[in-house]
Amino acid sequence: MAAVVVLLLALLFSGGLYAVFAPTSKAEADETAQSLTIEEGKKLYAVGCASCHGTGGQGTSDGPSLVGVGAASVDFQVGTGRMPAATSQGPQVPKKKNIYSQAEIDQLAAYIASLGAGPAIPTKEQYGPAGADIAEGGELFRTNCAQCHNFTGKGGALTHGKYAPDLEGVSPKHIYEAMQTGPQNMPSFPDTTLSEENKKDIIAYLDAVNSSKSESPGGLELGGLGPVSEGLFGWIFGLGGLIAVAVWVAARTAKAKKS
After folding, report:
1. What's the pTM value of the predicted model, to 2 decimals?
2. What is the average per-residue pLDDT within 49-71?
3. Cβ–Cβ contacts within 10 Å for residue 202, how many?
4. Where do runs of H (alpha helix) occur along 123-239?
5. Of 13, 84, 184, 226, which has the fewest CB atoms closer than 10 Å, so is most exposed?
6. Strand pairing partners for 60?
7. Rounded to 5, what percent of the chain is helix, strand, coil?
8. Inter-axis angle of helices 2-48 and 102-115, to 10 degrees?
């Protein structure tokens, strides 16, 4: 009996030690890994970003402050190749091939996030199609986004040489992040304005309209190129038709007077 009691006490003691020390060890390991990620991100930042945004992300005359922009903004701007920006700046920074791997982007995002709280990188559950309402997404998109991006996300021109980009082929994660952070000319749509479900519905709607190979249910869509093509059509044919009618009426009136 004494041997059994000793064995039970030993098991209880070892189990207690594990319960006390194991969670702490795991937390310390996670904290160490996060610290290493931030440190690597800081090195990447010093090489590729500090010249415009300042050594501590405080911003300069060549680039805005990054304190508080969050990891989602970094993942969007760097993941779409908009950052680092080209040396010759235009009215707005265009999308281009990115120069960082996803691991490096995650490191940069972790470092910027450490400078101040901001929107986090969304998970697949947040922007994935599961449970999304496409019809609701269409209503939300037409209400909040179509004024710039066109009804099917084909993009369109803005003032002073700026433009709303075409959303076809843009990854769901980057669309979600754009709504979170409001890059460049776009307003931000935090969860207080558009909830996570709203954002998911909009992404599902864009995926549906851009992946559809059927004809437009509304008839001729002028290539879906946005308000510029529609305005040009109205200007040439609409105004041109009015001028032609005015000339015809004037000619008939002049002829009637001569008679």
Report:
1. 0.74
2. 94
3. 29
4. 124-127, 134-144, 146-149, 172-181, 196-211, 227-233
5. 13
6. 63
7. 60, 0, 40
8. 90
Integer Cα distance of 31 and 44 in angstroms: 20
SS3 (DSSP) at 164: strand
Q: Give the model's confidence band at 9: pLDDT under 50 very low, under 70 low, under 90 confident, else very high.
A: low
**Across all residues in the chain, what is the average pLDDT?**
86
Specify the amino acid at residue 161. G
- The answer to whether 64 touches 53, Cβ cutoff 8 Å, is yes
Residue 101's nearest CA partner among 34, 176, 48 is: 48
What does the alpha-carbon distance between residue 94 and residue 167 come to, in Å, rounded to a whole number? 13
Structure-token match 């997404």, residue found: 137
Got the DSSP string for 207-250?
HHHHH--SPPTTS--GGG--HHHHHHHIIIIIIHHHHHHHHHHH
**Which of 188, 218, 193 minimizes the C-alpha distance to 73?**
188
| Contacts of 249 by beta carbon, 8 Å cutoff, 6+ apart | none
